[in-house]
Amino acid sequence: MQRLLSFSCALGTFALTIPMPLGAAEVPTKDSIVCALDPACANPQPAAEPPTRSLGRGVTVQKTTTEQPLAINLYINFAYNSAELTSDARITLDQLGGALSDPRLRSFSFLIGGHTDARGGAEYNLKLSERRSEAVRNYMITQFGITPERLVAKGFGKLQLLDPSRPEDGVNRRVQIVNTGVEGARK
Q1: First-residue to last-residue Cα distance in the chain
Q2: Which is more confident, 62 or 162?
Q3: Confidence class of residue 43 from pLDDT cuts 50, 70 and 90?
Q4: Rounded mean pLDDT, 153-182
Q5: CA-to-CA distance for 13 and 63, rounded, in angstroms?
Q6: pLDDT greater than 60 at residue 44
Q7: Dihedral through CA 169, CA 18, CA 112, CA 89, nearest 10?
């Protein structure tokens, strides 16, 4: 089975295809997260090259045509109906914290977007996604010393489903990390 992680940059959208289900044992590595969020790493090959490139170890980047900032979707486990991080969530967040602490990403700021599936009411899902994105932000600040100014938490509820054809599928429950640019360069 393969699991798809997508990320985007101003030059296109890319998908990381990992040939295994993504669970606690298959957490994305710090380096794969850095590469997904680092403009120097994630830029596509020139147009003459094929629209894919290998990141090694079975991870492939595929170019599509949508213009969006660099981002990666991470599947962070929370206790049911809460924003309490599980031990599996901490394993993934430890990789994220290492990536955000990496010298290649230290000058960038990030949006931490919380997303839910379409089960439940819109207002409830929005508030739950806000609490969950804030929990991730707080973990990055307290456990990794990421400066609070580099991280903005925002909940999207069920407004931006990853797979709209399956609105209640768990693939839609995720935390998206978006590179918003160089810290201090934004207003």
Answers
A1: 43
A2: 162
A3: low
A4: 90
A5: 6
A6: no
A7: 80
The confidence band for 67, taking pLDDT boundaries of 50, 70 and 90, is: low
Domain boundaries of the chain, sorted by first residue: 3-182
Which residues, at least 6 apart from 187, have a Cβ–Cβ distance to it below 8 Å?
none
Please indicate, yes or no, whether the overall pTM of this predicted structure exceeds 0.90.
Answer: no
3-class DSSP state of 184 = coil
* 180 closest CA partner among 68, 81, 14, 13: 68
Class of domain 3-182: alpha beta
Distance CA 143, CA 9 (A): 28
Tokens of 101: 């602490």
Helix (H/G/I), strand (E/B), else coil: 6: strand
Alpha helices in the chain (DSSP H): 30-37, 39-42, 87-101, 122-144
> How high is the pLDDT of residue 18?
36
The average confidence (pLDDT) of the chain is 77
Positive or negative: CA dihedral 25, 26, 31, 34: negative
What tokens appear for 51 in the block?
Answer: 């629209």
Query: Rounded to an integer, what distance in angstroms lies between the CA atom of residue 84 and that of residue 51?
Result: 40
Residues 2 and 16: their CA atoms lie apart, in Å, by: 10
